[in-house]
């Protein structure tokens, strides 16, 4: 039996939405309050994700980042009785200590968790606005997002990613609502534009200005171009931007590349306005590369404080970026949900009518194309705004099926999503670092070199020093001044395939945040080719879902900052 047409506004729907939000709240808030607590003793707090509270640090002039969320978490801290110490503004070290203290981190995590819950509600509203004739789309999409282990994990830490995603979808809802009803609602959309952009410099929100152009204008401009040709033109156009942003190309060559775009334009089908548009459009790519901020956000620099920088990836990003998008969506939706999302996208591409409200999704389309073709920085959390849309696509596809198959499909999607979430989120609670006190007690090391992110337990009586691969250079005896080397995957993964390096890792000069010397050391150490290093233990969080197991085999741990800990004995 199918649902009533007004299900999205019925008492039953409100009860279902409330139930989903309660579940979403519990699975985000509870971990946010417990992550890092009591790891190294009763009452202890261990900060593992050093990207947390970056916005707080920016709000106190101690870090170059967007201060939007930081202003709010600091206001909440002040209201709860946690005041900023006098005289620390502008002091990077003191600001970092305050913002990453347990007291403020808990507030930042609660803010993030609440933003994650509100995103679930925003997705429900967006589904109702876009698909009023598909009443099942809203609850299924919201439930998929509520149970997403990836979204839960990003919501329970104090970065700005969950908050940014919420403001993006709140803004999108406001734009769609305004298009449908006009009137004062445009003021709400304008107000929400500021946090949608400013929370994380998400400039793609400005693409929503396209809704101000009437549909007849688009019909006139693109008359004679069917959907298949439109897709080809779009991919070719963005591909052109990707090519000209490759650092290896000379400045002279990029001014000839726009001519290649003309080969895919169906000139004979176009009117005068469309021909003029197509003649001028490709030259925007090399022109923008002359603008410093655009070049920085598409190419980045080649060198940084850790060796290579994000721009070192060069043309390898042409494989890395398109690979990362399906990877994160498989992890965020589960394999069945990802298949449904792809099917839903194909279905809508073929059947969705041209509606001005759909133009409100152009910022998300621009963002996915940027992340697929241009982005030099590709941490998984940067892709988070794509997840709610993918949940919606999967839900819309399922809602088109007949009731018996639909019920089975929804049950499969949600149960798989829940089990994957348990496997993914428990990584935080079975973090390998929690096993370090036991290992220290059993092995009693005396002098330990540890890499970044190891976070060795305090009060062990052991001398710890920060390890750098340069210590093993010819003629250096630094490493042999210790008896143990402890490495965190979150640091040594720079030498292997991961979200920043992509699958092509044969050229050490193309790897990010490392040096060829470091790459050689890590690879030889793990291959057992260094006679003075013997691997004694590998601590890792357990996994059982196929998505996580495959990712670990090919790309290492999926959960950022919760990687393996490898312990090697230094033989003198």
From TrEMBL:
Transmembrane regions listed in the UniProt entry: 12-30, 110-130, 160-179, 199-219, 231-263, 283-302, 323-345, 357-376
Organism of this sequence: Congregibacter brevis
Record's protein name: Glycosyltransferase RgtA/B/C/D-like domain-containing protein
Signal sequence extent: none
Keywords of the record: Membrane, Transmembrane, Transmembrane helix
């Amino acid at each position: 039996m199918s649902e009533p047409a007004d299900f999205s506004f019925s008492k039953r729907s409100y009860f279902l939405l409330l139930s989903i939000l309660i579940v979403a709240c519990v699975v985000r808030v509870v971990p946010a309050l417990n992550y890092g607590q009591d790891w190294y003793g009763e009452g202890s707090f261990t900060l593992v994700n050093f990207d947390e509270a970056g916005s707080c640090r920016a709000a106190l002039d101690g870090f170059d980042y967007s201060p939007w969320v930081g202003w709010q978490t600091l206001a909440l801290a002040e209201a709860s009785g946690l005041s900023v110490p006098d005289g620390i503004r502008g002091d990077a070290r003191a600001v970092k200590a305050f913002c990453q203290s347990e007291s403020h981190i808990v507030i930042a995590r609660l803010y993030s968790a609440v933003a994650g819950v509100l995103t679930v509600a925003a997705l429900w509203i967006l589904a109702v606005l876009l698909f009023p004739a598909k009443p099942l789309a809203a609850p299924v999409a919201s439930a998929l997002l509520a149970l997403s282990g990836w979204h839960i994990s990003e919501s329970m830490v104090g970065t700005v990613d969950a908050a940014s995603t919420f403001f993006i979808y709140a803004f999108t809802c406001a734009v769609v609502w305004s298009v449908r009803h006009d009137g004062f609602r445009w003021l709400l959309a304008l107000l929400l534009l500021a946090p949608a952009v400013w929370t994380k410099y998400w400039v793609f929100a400005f693409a929503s200005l396209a809704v101000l152009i009437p549909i007849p204008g688009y019909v006139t401009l693109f008359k004679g171009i069917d959907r298949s040709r439109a897709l080809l033109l779009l991919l070719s156009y963005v591909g052109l931007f990707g090519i000209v942003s490759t650092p290896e190309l000379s400045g002279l060559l990029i001014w000839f590349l726009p001519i290649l775009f003309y080969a895919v334009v169906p000139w004979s089908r176009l009117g005068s306005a469309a021909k003029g548009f197509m003649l001028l459009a490709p030259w925007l790519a090399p022109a923008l590369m002359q603008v410093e901020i655009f070049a920085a956000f598409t190419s980045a620099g080649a060198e940084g404080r850790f060796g290579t920088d994000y721009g070192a990836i060069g043309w390898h990003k042409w494989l890395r970026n398109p690979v990362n998008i399906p990877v994160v969506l498989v992890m965020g939706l589960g394999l069945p949900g990802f298949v449904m999302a792809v099917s839903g996208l194909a279905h809508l591409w073929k059947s969705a009518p041209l509606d001005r409200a759909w133009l409100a999704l152009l910022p998300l389309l621009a963002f996915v194309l940027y992340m697929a073709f241009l982005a030099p920085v590709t941490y998984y959390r940067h892709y988070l705004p794509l997840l709610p849309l993918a949940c919606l696509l999967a839900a819309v596809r399922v809602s088109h099926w007949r009731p018996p198959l639909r019920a089975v499909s929804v049950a499969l999607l949600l149960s798989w999503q829940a089990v994957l979430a348990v496997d993914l989120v428990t990584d935080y609670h079975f973090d390998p670092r929690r096993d370090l006190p036991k290992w220290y007690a059993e092995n009693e090391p005396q002098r330990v070199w540890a890499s970044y992110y190891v976070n060795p337990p305090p009060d062990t009586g052991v001398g710890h020093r920060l390890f750098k691969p340069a210590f093993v250079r010819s003629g250096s005896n630094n490493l042999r001044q210790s008896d143990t080397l402890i490495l965190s995957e979150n640091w040594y993964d720079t030498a292997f395939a991961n979200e920043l390096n992509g699958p092509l890792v044969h050229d050490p000069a193309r790897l990010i945040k490392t040096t060829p010397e470091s790459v050689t050391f890590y690879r030889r150490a793990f291959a057992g080719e260094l006679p003075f290093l013997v691997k004694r233990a590998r601590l890792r969080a357990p996994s059982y879902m196929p998505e996580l197991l495959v990712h670990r085999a090919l790309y290492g741990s999926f959960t950022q900052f919760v990687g393996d800990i490898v312990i090697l004995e230094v033989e003198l």
